[in-house]
Amino acid sequence: QMYKQRFYLDGKLHKTSEKRDVETLRRWLNNLEAEWSANIGPLVEAGQFDPNNGHTITRVSPDELLVITTGNKKLRFVNIAVKG
């Protein structure tokens, strides 16, 4: 069974990876989670400088990661099964 990783920004699909095995994609999510978690910051007001760090990071499952940035953008990384 092959999987693809999809990245959504504010609910809009932005990027889909090539087909990979699920272990690789879960490792990518682990790395993303660690990267965002290393730079937690407070929400910033509109117009303020936005360092674009993570504000909240939620690992929904081994195959889904949700991030809200300091600028209040909603990022969603999810692994989905694909045929072939």
Characterization of the model:
By secondary structure, this protein is α+β, with helices and mostly antiparallel strands. The protein contains one helix and five strands; from the N terminus they run ββαβββ. It has one helix spanning 22-37, and strands at residues 2-9, 12-16, 54-61, 64-69, 74-82. The protein has a five-stranded antiparallel sheet, with helices on one face. β4 and β5 form a beta hairpin. The radius of gyration is 14 Å and the shape is elongated.
Key phrases:
84 residues; alpha+beta; 5-stranded antiparallel β-sheet; 1 helix
The share of residues in extended strands comes to: 35-45%
Helicity range = 10-25%
Strand sequence of the main sheet, in spatial order?
2-1-5-4-3
| Class from helix and strand fractions | alpha+beta
Brief overview:
This protein is α+β, with helices and mostly antiparallel strands and 84 residues long. It has one helix and five strands, in the order E-E-H-E-E-E. A hairpin with a 2-residue loop joins strand 3 (54-61) and strand 4 (64-69).
Write the layout of secondary structure elements.
Blueprint: E1 2-9, E2 12-16, H1 22-37, E3 54-61, E4 64-69, E5 74-82
Antiparallel strand pairs: 1-2, 1-5, 3-4, 4-5
